[in-house]
Amino acid sequence: MFKLNLKIAWRNLWKNKGYTFINILGLSIGMASCILIFIFIRYQLSFDEGFKNEDRIYRVISGWTTPDNFFESAGTPRPLPAAMRNDFKQQFDKVAAIQAGGGIIKVKDESGKERIKTSESVHYAEPDFFEILSFKWLEGNPRQSLSQPNTVVLSDEMADKLFGDWHKAVGKSINFQNKVDLKVTGIIEKSPDNSSFPLKVIISYKTYLNQARPESTNWGTVSSTSECYVLLKEGASIEDASKSLPQFITKYYQRDNVSKESHRFQQLRDIHYNADLGNFANKVMPKKELYGLAIIGAFLLLTACINFINLATAQAVSRGKEVGVRKVMGSLRRQLIVQFLTETLTITVVSLLVGCVLTEVALPGMQSLFKDHISFSIIEHPIIFVFMVVLVLLVSFLAGFYPAMVMSGYSPALAIKNKITANTAGLSLRKILVVVQFAITIILIIGTLVVLRQMSYMREKPLGFIPTAVALVDVPYDSMAITRYHTLQDQINKIPGVLSTSYCSAAPSSDFNNESNFRYNGTVRSTFQANTKTGDENYFKTFGLEIIAGKGLSKSDTLKDIVVNETMLKKLNVVNYNDAIGKTIRINDKTGNIIGVVKDFNNMSLHEPISPIVINSNKESYNTIAVKLDSKSILPAMRAIEKTWNTVLPEYVYGSTFMDDKISEYYQTEKIMGALFKVFAGVIIFISFIGLFGLISFVATQRTREVAIRKVLGASTLELVKMLNGSFLLMVFLANLVAWPLAYLFVAKWLATFTYRIDLNIWPFVFAMIISMVITLITVSIRSYKAAVANTIDALKYE
Amino acid sequence: MIQLNNIEKYYANKGIKNYVLRLVTTTIKQGEFVSIMGPSGAGKSTLLNIIGMLEEPTYGSYEFLGEDVTSLNERKRIELYRNHIGFVFQAYHLIDEMTVYENIEAPLLYKKVGSSERASRIADLLDRFNIVAKKDLFPNQLSGGQQQLVGIARALAAQPSIILADEPTGNLQSAQAEEIMTLFKKLNQEDGITIIQVTHSEKNAQYGNRILHIADGVVKEDVAVG
Ligand SMILES: Nc1ncnc2c1ncn2[C@@H]1O[C@H](COP(=O)(O)OP(=O)(O)OP(=O)(O)O)[C@@H](O)[C@H]1O
Ligand SMILES: [Mg+2]
C-alpha cells in the first residue's frame, strides 16, 4: 500500500509539475534557512560544554551601585580570590584567580640567536584554576607545572608554533616582555573554537605576583582582566554561598558613600551568553539573539508551509473525484489521510535534499559573517540529523495535515456528482493564510528598513570627533620604551602624509574605559564617577575635538591642566562654562586646574549615553600613539610608520588599528543583524511571492471558462486582469494593516537599545506597503494577463 | 436483499421543503436486475445514492441484507463497500494517476486481498473484458467504452453481491452501450450478481427483469420485464 501510495504521489507531483516546483522551491529554501539557523544555534549552545563538574563551576562577578547607576564587571579585586579561598572553605572546593594580559614572547635557538618574536595574549593562572576547569593535559599537570614562579604552560598549537613540535617543548624556555625567562613545564590541548577560554600561554600566577604590582593588594581597583573562578562543593548550594557574601564584603571593603560593592556568582554556562560581562574569548552571543533567529526560522518555515497549504487546498477540488471513488471502493478516511500525507512527505523529503545542497552553498557565507567555523556534518553532530528528521516530520504535518483533512473529508456523493467547488471553506482559510504570510513578510521588510536606516545613521552621525584616517599605533609602556617616546614621535611626524600625532591612553571613543571618583573645586566627593582619558597637547588636534571654552592641554608629562567635557559640567550644575575655568579637580590622588571645556563627543558606542569626562596628560599611562593621516596617502604612510617604529623600538612588536575600524567593531552585532535581516527578508519575500504566483496561477486556470465566457460577453483584457487581481491586492493591503502595529512594537523595542537612534516615522511602513503592493501587482498581473489573453475557443471547447 | 420503507428525502430551502423522494417503499431481492427510469430531476440518482449509502434519507428505514443501515458509521459502511457493493459511474471516475491495472487493483488493496490472489483475479478480469493489452495504460489513453469496461472490472474485482450503476452508458455510443448491457446481463444471469441501474433508455432497461418508474420522487410503476 505504502509503495503504491508513493508511486501515485510521484505521478501526481509530476502531473502538477508547476505547483510541485513552487512547493519544492519554497520548502527547500525555507528548510535550508532553518537548517542554517539550527546549526548556528547548536554551535552557539555548545560553548563551554563538557567540562567536568560543569554545573558546579561559577565565575565571581563584581557589581557597584552608585546613586544614579548600577554596573557590573567580570573582574574581581586582585586580593579577592585568596580571601574567598579562606572564607568560603565550607562552600567551595576550589577558588582560583586567572589574570589576562599580553606581551612579547621571544624564542632563541641553540646558538642563542633570536628565532621568533611575537606578540601574544597570555593568562596568569593559579594551579587550582585547572582543577576547576578540566583542560586536557598532554604533558605535566597543574600542581607541578604552575606552582613555581617563572614557569609557563603552552597549548599544543602554541608550542608547535614556538618550537616546531610540542613534544619537544617541555624543559625549554621562552623570554617574556624582554624581562623574564619562563620555563615550559606543561602542554595542554588547545581549546576548541567554541570555548570562552582560549588559553594559549599560561604563566604561573606566582610570576604575576612577583612583578609586585601595587594594585595586587588593593580592594579598590577592579580590572575586567582579573577573573576568579570557584568550584562549588558537591551537595552545597550556590544560594547558601551567596548568603555569606554580605559578611564577606563588609569584612574586606571600606565603606564609602559613593558606590556600594557587591558580588554574585555567574554559572559557567552563562558566560558565553552574557554580553555585558564578556569573557576572555571576546565571543558572546546573547540568548535573546538566538531566540530572535529561531523565531525568524519559524517564520520562514511557516511561510513555506502556508504556500504548500494554499496550493494543496486549491488543488484539492480537482482531487475530489478521486477521494469519492476511493471511498466507495472501501477506503477509510484514515487511509486517505495517510495517502495525502505520503505525498506531502515525498515533497518534503525532496525539499530537504535540495535544502541540504542550498545549506552547503550558503554555509561559507554564514561562516564569514560570524567569523566562526560552523560545521554541517551529520557524522560529527548526529543531532543535526535528528533535527532534519524532526523538520521533515513537522513540515509534512504542518503543511500536509490540513489539506489532507479537507480532501479526505469530501462526501463521496458530492465528489462523484462533481459538486465540490472551490467556494467552500478552503477559500476563506486560504485568504487568512495569505494575509498571515504577507503580514510576516511585511514585518520583515519594515524590520529590515529600520535596521538599515539605524545602521546608516550610526555610520553618519557626527560623533564630536573625526575618526577617519586616524591610525592607533600601539606603544610599549615600560620605562625603557618611554625614554624613546620623543624620538619616535619626532620621526613619525617627519613622514610625508602624517598631519599630527598624539600619545594617549585611549581614543576619544574606546571600549577601554576608566572611571574614577573625584572632588570638584575642593568640595566633597562627587556623587558620580568621571571617565578619565589621558593624552598629550596634540590630542584635540589629532582627533578633531573642539574646545568650546578656555583652551586645550599644553605640553606636560604629568597631571597639571585638565580639560572636561560639557556633560561633566552639566552634571555638576555649572551653567556658564567659563565659571569652571580655573577650578580644581582632585582625581586619582592628584590635583589639577580646569583650563578648558571640550564639546561633547560620543565616548562609547551609540548604545550608551555620553559620560562625564576628564582629560589630562600623564606620560606614564600612554599606550598608543594616534596618527592623523592625509587620507590620500594612508598606505605609504602606514608602511613608513611601521618601519620607523621597528627601528626605534626593535625589541617590541608593532601593532596598529584604524579608529574607524574600531568604531565599526562596536556594531558587529548590528551588522550581523542587518545582514541576516536582509537575507531572510529577501528569502521570505521570495517564498511569499512564488506562493502568490502559484495561487494566482491556480485561480486563473480555474476561472479559464469564466474568463472566456466574460470575454465573449465583451469584457476587455484590463477588466479581466482587474477582476482576477482585486482580491489579492485587498489581501496584501489587509496584511499591511495587520503587520504595522506588530512591526512597530518590534522595531520600537529594538531601537530602544540605542541611546542615539533614528526617529521612528511612517516611511518604513509606507515603503513596505508600496513594495508589497507593487510586487503583488506585478506577480499577479503577469499571470492573469496571460489568462485574460488566452484563446477563448480553447477554453469553451474544454469539457 | 434490499428493503426500503417509506424513504423520504427533501432539501430545506428558506424553510420550504423541496421533496426529492416521497414515501418510497420497495424490496429488491437477490439476483434481480432492476432499472430505474424517469424524467430528469425525478430523483433517480438520489434513490440510487441512498441505496448505495452515499446519501442518507431524511426519513424512513432501509435494510440491507437484513440489517438496518439507515444511519451507519463509517467503518461499517466501508465494510459493506469492501465486500458487497460495487459502483459504476456515468463519468467512469477512474483514478487518472493510476494505470488500468492499478485501478482494478485498488479495491483489492483496501480489502487486503493477498498479492497472488490479487494478481490472479485481475488477470482473470482483464482477460474476461479483453483489455489485457491495455493494462499499463492510463485512463486518458482509453476510449470512453474501454474506460467504462475498466470501471466495471474495478467494481467486480472485490466480488460484490450487488452493482449500482448510475447511467453507466450515458456517455457512450449505442454500440458500446450494447456491449456493456450485454455484459451486465451476463453478470446477472451467470454470476447471480444483483444489479440496479439508472437509465434513460427504454432499450437498456429491457436487458433487466424489472423497471421502477419514478416521477417527482414517487414510484409510479413497478413492472417486470419478460
Ligand atoms: N444538494 C441539493 N440541494 C437541493 N436540491 C438538490 C440537491 N441535490 C439534488 N437536488 C434536487 O433533487 C432533485 C433530484 O435530483 P436527482 O439528481 O436525483 O435527479 P435525477 O432523476 O437523477 O435527474 P437526471 O436524470 O437529470 O440525472 C432535483 O430536482 C435536484 O434539483
Ligand atoms: Mg441523475
Describe this protein's structure:
The complex is a heterodimer of chains A (799) and B (226). By secondary structure, chain A is of the alpha+beta class. Chain A has 3 domains: 2-42 and 288-457 and 669-797, no CATH class; 54-273, no CATH class; 477-651, no CATH class. Helix content of chain A is 49%, strand content 18%. Chain A is built from 26 helices and 23 strands. In chain A, helix 2 packs antiparallel against helix 10 (287-316) and helix 10 runs antiparallel to helix 15. Chain A is globular. Chain B is of the alpha/beta class and 226 residues long. Chain B is 35% helix and 29% strand. Chain B has 7 helices and 10 strands. Chain B has helices at 44-51, 74-83, 100-110, 115-128, 144-157, 174-190, 202-205, and strands at residues 2-13, 16-28, 33-37, 59-64, 67-68, 85-88, 162-166, 194-198, 210-215, 218-224. In chain B, the strands form 2 sheets. A 6-stranded mixed beta sheet of chain B has the order 6-7-8-3-9-10. In chain B, strands 2-1-4-5 form a 4-stranded antiparallel beta sheet. In chain B, a hairpin with a 2-residue loop joins strand 1 and strand 2 (16-28). In chain B, helix 3 (100-110) crosses helix 4 (115-128), helix 3 runs parallel beside helix 5 and helix 4 (115-128) packs antiparallel against helix 5. Chain B is globular and about 50 Å long. The two termini of chain B are 22 Å apart. The chains are: A alpha+beta (799), B alpha/beta (226). Chains A and B meet through helix 1, helix 11 and helix 14 of A and helix 2 and helix 3 of B. The site of adenosine-5'-triphosphate (ATP) has 10 residues of chain B, from helix 1.
